[in-house]
Design a protein that fits this description.
about 400 residues, three-stranded antiparallel β-sheet, about 15% strand, Beta-lactam/transpept-like, Beta-lactamase/esterase
């Protein structure tokens, strides 16, 4: 009997085949994938184990930590406030956050915050998970901090600081946390939380590192596929070597940006993090709910269609100062690039956001597609995880 359960429209059977293959080849522990086509749910599949220690199975309502997929919701919240006239995207941040003008940042605009151009990819000091539960305090840290480059002159992925920069738009101009704003404004009916209650945390999937599951020196399936992924993304040997060096250097921009605040004991299974709802990487959600968010975005039910079209227009593209790979961003949303790897059919109009470990949320207004994939078996190497790509490729093939 297949470990995969749920519904799949016959026209999208290819998505189920890839999902089942990922389990059969040992690429998954537990996972879920959901697809909407023109507003209709055509794929809602799940399978495997939600907690490897207890053997608890993944159920249709099992939420999973979605890492940086969270950023798309923070962006949507900030964009909704701009649409309502709360601030100007091209106006100075100091109009609504006066303290942010310190240390040479007085020319920073809201667009710089949303496009990873603020020059604040990492905190200057170690920040604990407990401290990160206070958004006002962390925003204050960033307001006082000197940028690593002049805002607007370069872009580099603000892996965690993004949440307390873009999120401060929401906190200051709505008086609510990002989690509260998102839930009240456009996710009331979705199983999606940026700051989860105890009962949701209790039934959430538990993340497992691929190296821990494999043990010893056995490479995970995803690590073994890293060469194929590098070829597909057109990553040359020199860049691959620099990526590996950055990945292993604790002082690299990549590591400073992705590991501070540190989630503490239990990593991102830590209830302190899950309750806090970091607006950069703090969301618990199900795959149908995350896909449902993109369904509603594409349908014009969260932002006006013209607002979304402008938001997904690429603002920055090219080598990323933090991640080294080529990245492309609209206003808070990733666009197809080496860091947001998509099939050719998605490259003109798809947008969304990836998350560490392999998760992804994506919308495509031209194709009428909304897609989400959430695994609890985390990939070892960012360049080696092809699970989401294969599922997305099957989804686009099914549309044809």
């Amino acid at each position: 009997m297949s470990t995969v359960q749920g519904h799949c429209d016959p026209a999208f059977a290819g998505v189920r085949e890839v999902f089942e293959q990922n389990f059969a080849e040992g690429r998954e522990l537990g996972a879920a994938v959901a697809v909407y086509a023109d507003g209709r749910k055509v794929v809602d599949l799940w399978g495997g184990v939600a907690d490897r220690r207890t053997g608890r199975e993944w159920l249709p309502d099992t939420p999973c930590f979605a890492f940086s997929c969270t950023k798309a919701l923070t962006a949507a919240a900030a964009l909704l406030l701009a649409e309502r006239g709360a601030y100007r995207m091209d106006g100075p941040v100091t109009d609504w956050w006066p303290e942010f003008g310190a240390a040479g940042k007085e020319g920073t605009t809201a667009e710089h915050l949303l496009t990873h151009q603020a020059g604040l990819p990492a905190f200057a000091r170690p920040v604990s998970a407990e401290e990160a539960a206070d958004p006002a305090a962390l925003a204050g840290e960033l307001a006082a901090q000197k940028p690593e480059w002049t805002p607007g002159e370069a872009h580099g992925y603000h892996a965690l600081t993004y949440g307390w920069l873009a999120g401060e738009i929401v906190r200051r101009l709505s008086g609510r946390t990002v989690g509260a704003f998102v839930k009240e404004e456009f996710a009331r009916d979705l199983d999606l939380w940026i700051g989860a209650p105890g009962d949701v945390i209790e039934r959430a999937a538990k993340l497992t590192a691929a190296r821990r599951l494999q043990g010893g020196g056995n490479a995970s399936p995803e690590t073994r596929s890293s060469d194929a992924s590098a070829r597909a993304r057109k990553i040359d040997g020199d860049l691959l070597n620099r990526l590996v060096a950055a990945f292993t250097d604790p002082q690299s921009a990549m590591n400073r940006s992705t590991n501070n605040p540190h989630p503490g004991k239990g990593g991102y299974n830590n209830p302190v993090v899950l309750r806090a709802g970091w607006p950069s990487a703090g969301m618990l959600t199900t795959a149908p709910a995350l896909a449902g968010f993109y369904r509603d975005l594409v349908a014009g039910e969260i932002l006006r269609p013209e607002t979304l079209r402008d938001a997904i227009r690429p603002r920055v593209s090219g080598p990323d100062r933090t991640m080294l790979l080529e990245s492309s961003f609209g206003l808070g949303f990733m666009r197809p690039a080496q860091t947001f790897f998509t099939p050719a059919a998605a490259r003109e109009s798809a947008f969304g956001h990836t998350g560490a470990g392999g998760s992804i949320g994506l919308g495509d207004p031209d194709a009428g597609l909304a897609f989400a994939y959430l695994p609890n078996l985390m990939s070892d190497m960012a360049a080696g995880d092809m699970r989401a790509y294969r599922l997305l490729e099957a989804a686009y093939a099914s549309l044809a």
